[in-house]
Structures are given as C-alpha cells and as structure tokens.
Specification:
The protein is an alpha+beta fold and 343 residues long. It is built from 11 helices and 9 strands. The strands form 3 sheets. It has a 5-stranded antiparallel sheet with strand order 1-2-3-5-4, with helices on both faces.
C-alpha cells in the first residue's frame, strides 16, 4: 500500500465511522489518466467503488456535477455516496466488473450489443441537460486535431506535416460545428458501458461537452473493439438518423449528407486518438498504447475513403504515414501486421 492509498483508506473509514483495518481496499483499475479505482465493502457486505483522482492532475468537479445532473435526469450513472474534491476522493455505487466489451465475441453478439448501446446513446441525447456543459467549439476541436501532427508526426515519427493537412483540419472542424448540439459523453465506447442489473450504465463521463450529435455515435462505431464493414456501418448510421429525425434530435437531413458528417467526425476522432496514444507513449511512459495504433489507423482510412475530397490526404496516409508507422512499430518491437496497418 502506498501513502496515497493509505490516505484514501483512512478517508473512507472516517466516512463510515469504521476502524481503518475494517476497510481494506481492493485494487480495481487505473485508466489512461491519473485516476485510479478501488473497491471496498461495508460491514454488511455492500460493495462500493472509490475513485482516486489526484487534484493536482485531475479536476473531479466536472465528474461530480455531471453525475448528479445526469442521475437527476434519470440516466444510468452511478450514485455518489461521498465526495472530497480537495483530496480528490469520490465514493461511488459499485456497478460490478461486467463491461460491454466482454460480450463482443461474435459479429452477431456484437451487433446486438451495439444496438443496445445506440439506444442508450439516444436516451442520453434526449435526456441529458447540456446547457451547463463546456462547448465543443472550434478551439477544442482544433486542439484535439493538433495532437496528431504534434505527437504522431513530429514526436514519434519525425515526419513533416503534409500540405493537405490545413484544408482537412478546417473542413473537419466546420463539419462538426454545423451539426445539431447535444450532450456528448466524449468517450462513448464499449469499455465505458457497464452491464449492471441487465442494463447498460454510463461511466467515465467527466469530459462531457455540448457538441455534435454524431460524435458519440462514431465514438462507439469506430471504437477500440470493432472494425465494422462499411455496409454494416452505413446501416447503423441510417437507423440512427431515422430515429433522430423521428424524435426531433435531428432536423431533416438526407442520408448521404448525414453519413458524410458522421464519417468526417470519425476522421476527426481517429486523428485525435492516434495523437493521444502517441502522447501516452512518449510523455506518460505507457507504451502499450502503441499496439492500438494500427486499429485506429484502419478507422482513419475507412473514414477518409468516404470523403473523396480528401483523397490527397488518404494517399499521404497510405504512401508516407503508414510505412513510417510500421517501421517505428517494428523498431520498438510492437507486434503488428502490415495488413492491419493498410487494410
């Protein structure tokens, strides 16, 4: 036990007027941030989860505010039982360990679970208050996109920025800003959807913003655990469009236009994720994220293929970026296949 986990254990013991040794902590998980999670049990056996978010690195105020607002809106988020923002400690309802990504073995199973997740997303977009959320504005979209040239090109691969980058960057931002605005989870992914009491629940929502209706949709469909064929991807997008128009989240927009908006949003997110994974590797000493780069490169290529006006950038991805990335992965001993990089 380190000093911080001991402080956390003393905090939760005081919360429940229990002796220190009556609250042993079980290590649950960390994530890509500085947050860490533990489980402990009350004397009657009820499990709770503790979030440790060091305040010098993480601002837990947003998590607490959103959790309370979304729970009041009858959205499936964990209850809060104790909060100490100064220390960076939060006591949460325990949703268990069953995560949606555990259920994606076959294509048929994955299709069923993705449909369930899409219905939850639609519920989130209809119910979640978003007026108090930060705006997913031009500046934030630009900062996210700029992670790609900074960390992938300059820091990891020592590649020059291609001439087609400025036009792509502005086009992706403009397309995102043109869409209807809803509450955006911002990491709506099979890893952040818990199966609890036979329903999907939301976690890891502290970065939520008010932004484009397609962002969480493509975050799910082009996430960590599936590379859907283009035909299946188109079916998901079209079903979402029709339901969004029926319930008023989306004004009348034709199928082709919306599909292109979704794919452009997916390109933005794939570029951001590639940059984040390189930053996690180089700045935060988490090299395991390099193994995920080929998967998101495949997502990037699929998205660009649906946007022929950006064919010059796709050509650069195939002829310059992909070979350089594969060489770097080989140099670092990261297992991959050339097919994974280019398919």
């Amino acid at each position: 036990m380190n000093e911080r986990s001991e402080t956390l254990q003393r905090w939760v013991a005081r919360q429940h007027a229990l002796p220190f040794d009556a609250c042993p902590l079980e290590d649950v998980a960390g994530d890509a941030s500085f947050r860490h999670y533990y489980r402990f049990r009350l004397p009657d056996g009820t499990p709770r989860v503790l979030m440790d978010a060091p305040p010098e690195h993480e601002n837990s105020q947003a998590f607490v505010d959103i959790a309370r607002a979304w729970r009041a809106a009858r959205l499936p988020v964990p209850a809060l039982y104790g909060v100490d923002l100064e220390a960076g400690f939060v006591e949460l309802e325990d949703l268990g360990d069953d995560v949606m990504h555990h259920h994606l073995g076959s294509d048929a199973d994955a299709h069923i679970w993705f449909e369930r997740a899409l219905h939850l997303l639609e519920h989130l977009q209809r119910q979640a208050p978003c007026d108090d959320l930060p705006e997913y504005d031009h500046a934030l979209l630009a900062r996210e996109l700029d992670l790609f040239p900074e960390w992938c090109l300059t820091e990891l691969l020592d590649l020059p920025i291609p001439p087609s980058w400025p036009a792509l960057r502005e086009s992706l931002i403009d397309t995102a800003l043109a869409q209807p605005r809803v509450a955006v989870h911002r990491d709506f992914d099979a890893m952040n959807l818990m199966l609890h009491e036979d329903a999907l629940w939301l976690i890891d929502f502290q970065d939520a913003v008010q932004g484009p209706i397609s962002y969480d949709l493509v975050s799910l469909l082009r996430g960590r655990y599936r590379l859907w064929p283009q035909a299946r991807m188109a079916d998901f997008i079209e079903s979402f469009r029709q339901r969004a128009q029926e319930d008023g989240r989306l004004a009348s927009v034709d199928a082709n236009t919306f599909h292109r908006q979704v794919e452009a949003m997916g390109v933005q997110r794939s570029l951001k994720v590639l940059g984040i994974f390189c930053r996690l590797t180089l700045r935060d000493a988490k090299p395991r994220y390099l193994e995920r780069l080929p998967h998101f490169l495949a997502h990037l290529r699929q998205g660009l293929a649906a946007l022929p006006e950006h064919g010059e950038f796709l050509t650069w991805v195939d002829t310059t970026f992909t070979p350089a990335l594969c060489r770097e992965l080989d140099r670092r001993g990261v297992p991959h296949s050339l097919e994974e990089c280019t398919s």
